[in-house]
Design brief:
The protein is mainly alpha-helical and 65 residues long. It contains 4 helices and no strands. It comes from Bacillus mycoides.
């Protein structure tokens, strides 16, 4: 974690961010998603796991299309 690279660390996710993460997760590296949103790679991975367990991943993925 570095405050210059992760300015949104511990802030709540917006619907737009969730849609972006679900749309691009699995294409390329998580590092790119994390840097573009100002989050850490670990939090992106953890969020995706939680969304998949709750059945929300596909819902947000459809929003991003």
């Amino acid at each position: 974690y570095h405050p210059d690279y992760h300015p949104n660390h511990k802030k709540p996710y917006t619907t737009k961010e969730l849609a972006y993460i679900c749309k691009y997760y699995g294409f390329g590296k998580v590092k790119g998603i994390a840097l573009s949103l100002g989050r850490t790679e670990t939090t992106i991975r953890q969020l995706v796991n939680v969304l998949r367990k709750n059945g929300m991943f596909e819902k947000y993925k459809a929003m991003g299309e």
